[in-house]
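Q: Can I see a sequence and its folded structure?
A: Here is a first one.
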Amino acid sequence: MNLTKTTNGKAGRRPGLSLDPLRNWWAGAPGWQRWTVYILLIVGAIFLPSEAIGSFMAPPSASWQSMLSDQIAIYVLLALGLNVVVGMAGLLDLGYVAFYAVGGYTIAIFAVRYHWSFWETLVLAILFSALAGVILGAPTLRLRGDYLAIVTLGFGEIVKRTANNSSFVNGPRGVQGIPHPPTLSEFEIFGVQPLKYGLLDTRPYYYLLLLFIIIAIIFVRRLDASRVGRAWASIREDEDAAELMGVPTFRFKLAAFAIGAAIGGSGGVVFAAKQTSILPANFEFIVSALILAAVVLGGSGNIPGAILGAFVVAWLPERFRFLDEYRMLIFGGALVLMMIFRPEGLWPSRRRKAELEEGGGGMGTMGAEVAGPGQSETAEVGK
């Protein structure tokens, strides 16, 4: 049990639902139990587009399959990418939508103008997005906290304004006629052709995004458990101390930007290929804000938390669309209440929760001096 000592000398426990028993079980679970859970989660994700689930998850006026492929799965993939930057490396990025736009416009240009295939442009878009992350990070990652946030915000606006004013990509009219991914097979299972891409069935795009999400989870999880992940954790907790201990902080921060950007760019490719057209208006600042809210709401630094937060942020406003203009008011109020009563998020990692309890605002150097709610000077005195 974690006890905290406040300035009034009394010890107490932080309020809220504890996930420690589940974490303790998972830490000691043998390999076969872990793989069983992984397989069950993947099977559940495969059956998520079914009408039985959509009947209560989606409002009567909306298509559950479209909600999954158009918004929920895209948000989950983007949240995984931003979680690398914000949650693991502790760098506040307010212009993440720029990398999403780079991916979308890469396929729009090379598929429409130069007739490249989807898979060729996918690889190119990931490389271009990673390069954009390096270009943004190289001159700016010497900055910290709110200064870095302002620069990334400006970068997101620069990319959008450039697309809006460039005749090469038709300015505000955008690019039309983007081809769908090529159909790989027409085999059918349970009434679904998961490898046949077109306009009528959105489920194949969901399964394509699900594949990207699984690959991103494996890749990011392996990084988090490696020397790279430990370097990110040290930078997030105390960059000066990490530098003194010999960690090449600039190099690892640049790697976080590049990896997060590459994941975001892959989401932009699928979005553009499904919609067959993109506009600068698709890449507003609100997208960056919502993805950041998803990461913080779910539990910054925790992969399952980022996925849960993205699902909630993408699903709740659509589920309560029948409330019209009041739905966003209620959604915003729910976010405020969540940050008041559970600032560590719905599913925080144990490490980030401890950082927040010690007075780090949960956002690396951006919130290093901000104490948690109800806290003054806290110190862990026992377990």
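Q: Show me another, different protein.
A: A second, unrelated one:
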Amino acid sequence: MSFIEQYNQISNLVSDDLKRLEQELVSEIDFSPYINTLLKDFLTKNTKRIRPLLAFLYLRASEKEITQIQYSYQTIIEIIHNASLIHDDVIDESTVRRGEKTLNANFNNKTAILTGDYLLSIALKKLNQLNNPKIMTLCSNTLENMCKGEINQYFNRYKLTTIEEYIKKTEQKTANLFQTALEGAAVLSGESNNTNIQEFARCFGIAFQIRDDLINISDTANLKPIQNDIDNGIYNAPVIFSGNTNNLKEGIEKTKSLLNNYIAQAKNALVDLRDNKYKRAIWELLEILNEI
């Protein structure tokens, strides 16, 4: 069974939750008629919904009620994520995302940036409607860290940084949003102690990005250009471990070990979660992160 087939099988457990989220996500879009259709397609096509998937699986594993507030919150997370992708495509001068032309390729950089900003304005409006200071702080801190990670990555182009710096960048650019999705879900469900779910989300987010970085340098990449990170001077774990951009064999093996380490840490953080089909689905998600 392929990665996508296994992933779809897992996501089917909370398919109704994901459908409700997607309906709310698309219903928020009321932009220029020249962009509306493309933007809605971008938000719905070839997307994993990995952050809300994890949040819904966690809530159901914990036997928590999934209220409308939870759907709205995960919609906010998806909006922030997709706005960041639109901005990233401009920064990286990318022309393909999820197998389709990017907004900047369809129009221009200015239009794409404004579209990303428009999505962020929707997220801010929905955050305000939640009227929860802790949730607002979580999201604002995450946006700050995402920007810091992107800026630091820019100034470290064509440089061999340390693995520690790589992990910090990965936390800022990727793992923080996973943490915000799951910690926010825990907060909104009334949990006061969510240390384990924070650690799980952090480790899952880092593992998810490490896997993506491995795919970026392999022949299995099919929805975005292969090795575009190296071409753009972004030296991730395989290059850092190898010490060069030409012979990556040793670096790839060490990166796989790093991936396994974070998967193991994520599993350890699930120790107190109730054993049911939803927890087992989260466990399976961790297992298939190794399939590259």
